[in-house]
Amino acid sequence: MNSDTENYARRGQLIEAAKEEFLEKGYNKASLRSICAKANMTTGALYFFFKNKEDLFDEIVSKPLEELKAILAEHFEEDKEFMTKITDISEGDIDHSDISDKIVDHIYSNYDSFLLLLSGSENTVFENCVDEFVDLTEKSFIQMMDESLKRMPGCEIDRYMSHWLAHITVDAFIHEIKHDKNVETARVRLRNIMNYLVHGWVTLTIVKK
Fold it and tell me: How confident is the model at residue 92 (pLDDT cuts 50, 70, 90)?
């Protein structure tokens, strides 16, 4: 086994041991010494690969998060394009089951990483990601609805309701991840929740001036 292959394997061992430790004890109580013991390595070996506990945690959760952002960005662009092709907000199919399933499948394919993120209440990744997803959802919705408002004189977006619904949308996924490990159950529930919320976005956020 060459050194690169060996380092890759050792790094992987540390990551798997860290997942186990974080899931068992949470971010704050997780011990680097315990992680190294689980991986049969020294703390010096750990610091060869990672700067500190936060860097190790980031390694576990950051890639799935970035991939989720890419899925959402693609979806929001598709929605924005869709809105340019209709003449009235009530037109067209607003069923969002496909994107809901895509999000669920990605999250549950990386379930431990997302569960760790949501369980760790005092690390910088967790502190920033919920607000980031809320902002992304709200900004993308407003950009999308701006296309419809061009054809709806006398109407505007209720910014409070828009922000509130962005929170509710993100919270719906968080709640399901934390409370159900079964991907099929999560798919069914979140399809229904997402379609319900999409109607809310349309009916509660577009108001008369």
Answer: very low
